[in-house]
Automatic annotation (TrEMBL):
PANTHER family: MONOACYLGLYCEROL LIPASE. Its EC number is 1.11.1.18. One of its GO terms (molecular function) is bromide peroxidase activity. Residues 21-246 form the AB hydrolase-1 domain. The lineage of its organism: Bacteria, Bacillati, Actinomycetota, Actinomycetes, Streptosporangiales. This is Putative non-heme bromoperoxidase BpoC. It comes from the Bacteria. InterPro entries: AB_hydrolase_1, AB_hydrolase_fold, AB_hydrolase_sf. Keywords: Oxidoreductase, Peroxidase. It is an enzyme of class 1 (oxidoreductase). Pfam families: Abhydrolase_1 (PF00561).
C-alpha cells in the first residue's frame, strides 16, 4: 500500500501498475482496499487494478470533518487524477458502490463502466439506521467487543474463514471507522431518481446470502440504470463476494469487460 495526497487529504491505495485497462475498486464499510486482493492477484497484469481506502478506513485517516459520499466520489476522481488515469472501470462493494455511482454522476466522461456488488442507490433504511447506530455506539463505548465484531463479520463476510481473519484485524487496529464515516453511511442521500443519467454499462452482482442489501434494492439498480446487466448471483456469497469468492467474481468481471454479459 502507498499514500498520496489528493483532494486535500492523504489517501491510502494499491496499484498493480501495467498498461492494461484500468479497474478502480472501492471497499465496503468497515473493510478496506485489501478485500480486493483476489482481484489484484487474478486480474493483473492483463488489467491495471487500483484499490483504495476510503476516509476513516484502513490507512486513510479520519480527519474529524463530516463528509458525504459525494466527497468520497471526489476523492476517487482526485486519486485517478493523481495516478494519471483518465477513464476507468470503476466500482465496489456496498459503500464502494455508493461512491462509484456518485462518481459516475459527477464525471460521466471518466467512468467507462461500473461494477456494483451488493449495493444500492437508496438512502439508509430508517430501521437500519437505528440498528447500526446502536451497534456502532456499543463499539465506540466499549472497544472491539468480540461478540459484536463476530456478528458484524458474519453479516459482512458470511460463513467463510475470512470472517475470523477480519475480526482479528479489527481487534488489532488502532481505531475503527466509528467517527465521521458513521454519519456518512447512515445519513446518505437517495439518488435513485438520478440513475437514468448514468449511461455507461454496469455489471450488477449480488451474493445469494447477503443480509445487508435486500434483493429488491439491486433490482431497482437494474431497472434504473440504462446500461445495467441483469443481477448476477454468486451462490454462497454474503455481502462481500470479491473477498470470499474471487474466482467467480473475476470470471464475471472478465465476461463483462468482454461484453459477454447482458
Amino acid at each position: 500500500m502507498a499514500i498520496l495526497h489528493a483532494n486535500g487529504r492523504d489517501l491510502c491505495y494499491s496499484d498493480s501498475g501495467g498498461d492494461g485497462p484500468v479497474i478502480v475498486l472501492a471497499h465496503g464499510y468497515f473493510l478496506d482496499g485489501s478485500m480486493f486482493q483476489g482481484q489484484l492477484d487474478g486480474l493483473a497484469p492483463g488489467h491495471r487494478v487500483v484499490t483504495w481506502d476510503a476516509r476513516g478506513h484502513g490507512g486513510t485517516p479520519d480527519d474529524g470533518v463530516p463528509f458525504t459520499y459525494w466527497d468520497s466520489a471526489r476523492d476517487l476522481l482526485a486519486l485517478m487524477d493523481a495516478l494519471g488515469i483518465g477513464e476507468a472501470t470503476v466500482g465496489g462493494v456496498s459503500q464502494g458502490g455508493f461512491i462509484s455511482l456518485r462518481a459516475a454522476l459527477l464525471a460521466p466522461d471518466r467512468i467507462g463502466r461500473l461494477v456494483l456488488f451488493d449495493t444500492e442507490s437508496h438512502a439508509c433504511d430508517p430501521g437500519d439506521q437505528v440498528a447500526y447506530r446502536g451497534l456502532f455506539d456499543v463499539l465506540a463505548a466499549n472497544g472491539p467487543v468480540p461478540e459484536v465484531l463476530d456478528g458484524l463479520a458474519a453479516q459482512l463476510i458470511g460463513d467463510h474463514p475470512a470472517a475470523a481473519d477480519w475480526v482479528r484485524k479489527w481487534r488489532a487496529a488502532p481505531e475503527l471507522p466509528l467517527g465521521t464515516p458513521v454519519g456518512c453511511l447512515l445519513d446518505r442521500d437517495d439518488i435513485t431518481g438520478r440513475l437514468p443519467e448514468i449511461g455507461c454499462p454496469a455489471l450488477l452482482v449480488r451474493g445469494s446470502e447477503d443480509r445487508s442489501i435486500p434483493a429488491e434494492r439491486m433490482r431497482a439498480l437494474r431497472d434504473g440504470l440504462p446500461g445495467a446487466t441483469g443481477v448476477q448471483t454468486v451462490q454462497g456469497a454474503a455481502h462481500s463476494p470479491p473477498l470470499t469468492h474471487p474466482k467467480e467474481v473475476n470470471e464475471l468481471l472478465r465476461r463483462f469487460l468482454a461484453d459477454e454479459i447482458a
